[in-house]
């Protein structure tokens, strides 16, 4: 007995619910249709009106054809009755009604429910005990009575026409079979069986036609499989009813056996329905998990941005598909997903099925404040006033509600409203299914949230919240491909190290955050902005002409150079901006190349010119440095790097006190390179240890030769702050001294004042180990850094070297003269030997000697000389004599 269940459907979304003797078109569930976020209708209202009009025309046709068919069959099969037909009709109507209520509903596929009922049993018996009119009346009364009992009034006319066509078709087929068998006096059982199978077939065809009228798709294979199942179950039911009637009519005492068979068949149906339900539940759980996982993969392919169309990184339409799948599985009129991925975010609402009457739930809604993560089943007839009001606000008679929680954090709420395909409403299986599905969904959401957090952290800087280098490359690649006429900016702030040294890293970090905020405000929210490292930022200006890029960079630098308020201080800041654009219009440029070029432009900025665009000549400078670094080791092996020596004399007695070892490099391509050019590059590349070992070994070889000649001349070697960070450096020095058999006192290590003071706590242990070896330690360029006398007293140094800038200025600047005199006095008060660099005139030498300076070094004495020329200088400009300990000493000839 087909019925069209449910309230009028504004979406036009339909499904076929077919029974073993008929089918039903169920409003509000079935084939996936559009879903909405919030209260908006799930389909355009014009389409809903069109579908409703089409179905009304179809209903009128079914009802008209049903009435006409009933009149025609009634005329063909004349009525023969008596008073006994009254109670027979009543019994048949009760049997039809009972068979309808004992139906077993199974959701076979998404949008298709299969109702296994037993209405074929009273129908096949009716062929033997009642005429057509009585069976038709009993069928119609039972069917409409069932619809009214279920409070379904929206499709009564269609169902009435379908009832008429079912019984009319059944008796027409039975009559034809009876005539084919010679028109016997009694109804033959083949005719009754054929007629009984006709009823569910007619019902199914009408339901499939309704799906077609409502413009919903169903595969032919699905329709054929559904029809086949209906005929099989109808045949089993009809056979049981027919066999039972024939057995009881022939052997009345056999009715217990017939009843046992009927109960066994019912139990079999129930077991089969449970098996199908478990299979469908497992499929639904798998589908929901796969939907969330696939949506996560699609979200991972999206740019690292946030959109109003995304909920937890997933498109709202994808959540709507998930909600539609849950609705289909539960055969609910509506499923509502309320999702909140962050504690501070408002809940986003996704609806599948009937639209919500209200746009949002109240803040004190009892259905959204449920504790735990268990499914609650609410019926409007049993609920307390608050819950009843919440259900009425949703336009629902019953609801299943389950919170989605993770670690006591509310991720959302799932609501299912009004079970449509079963008269009893939601049952325990639905509660169990929704609970398990919600658990899977909560786990998937939690995993998605964690993945989204990891992905955000992978692409963003944790301090400023802007993109990091990887995120900038990811976000900027597509706009750069779409707009080749774009510019990459690199902004370097010179405040980070200064502020961190003076006020600590906390305040430096605060200034970086403030600088990042200024950049974002100046550039706008749509410009990709990244913090690369330290106090360096990068930005992409899309579709900007190169001639306008310089003006934009200038404005940006001015904004960033304004003083920064730090606590109650105003810290002055400065910024350097470099920018790079494709060299030719339309040139496809990789983002990494532009970043590198912008970095080169920043490095080329100078005082007074803090904004520079990239030029190819800049790249040549850095390529030269790159070649120097990569070719340095090979140059050492090829003898291109050598050591020159600059003599130092003791001022009181004019004796040669030692030499300073200075490295020189004659490059086959670049020619003679000065230390100021290649040493910083080598140091930055981490090769300074190799260079220091080379100079130390060459110096020890020279000292050893002098010792073999009876000369006691010390050699001074410059070391870097990186050497002081090498814990193995003292051991390497000791091994070299032992290998060349040189007394430690003939080796002096010179280190800059700024190098020691940059990290005195790390440098002190290394210096103490070197001092323990017996080598001399000298502070080079003294007076130019930010010396701390407290640290100078702690350092195990033996010498201080006055920077040549002061020595050169003594003759013309009284201030330089005072500085030199102060350093000499300070050094002597600390028991240190004082060495003056940059002595180029006799007057300066005499002044230093008068002040009591111990050692002089400079062009007045000698320029740095290679080893062979040094030997010639020593022979030509010194006199040899025996010292107190019988060593040969060299005295400068004046």
TrEMBL record:
Output one GO MF annotation: cyclic-guanylate-specific phosphodiesterase activity
In what residue span(s) does the EAL domain sit? Answer: 625-878
Residues in GGDEF domain copies: 484-616
Q: Which InterPro entries match?
A: Cyclic-di-GMP_PDE-like, EAL_dom, EAL_sf, GAF, GAF-like_dom_sf, GGDEF_dom, Nucleotide_cyclase, Rev_trsase/Diguanyl_cyclase
Record key words, sorted: Membrane, Transmembrane, Transmembrane helix
The record's annotation in SMART domains points to: EAL, GAF, GGDEF
Q: Which residues cross the membrane?
A: 55-77, 84-104, 124-149, 156-177, 189-214, 226-248
Low complexity biased stretches: 23-44
Extract the Gene3D superfamilies matched here. Answer: 3.30.450.40, 3.30.70.270, EAL domain (3.20.20.450)
Q: Where do the record's region annotations for Disordered lie?
A: 1-45
Q: Which NCBIfam families match?
A: GGDEF
Task: State the PANTHER family in the record.
Answer: CYCLIC DI-GMP PHOSPHODIESTERASE PDEF, OXYGEN SENSOR PROTEIN DOSP
Spell out the protein name for this chain. Answer: Diguanylate cyclase (GGDEF) domain-containing protein
Q: Which organism is it from?
A: Amycolatopsis xylanica
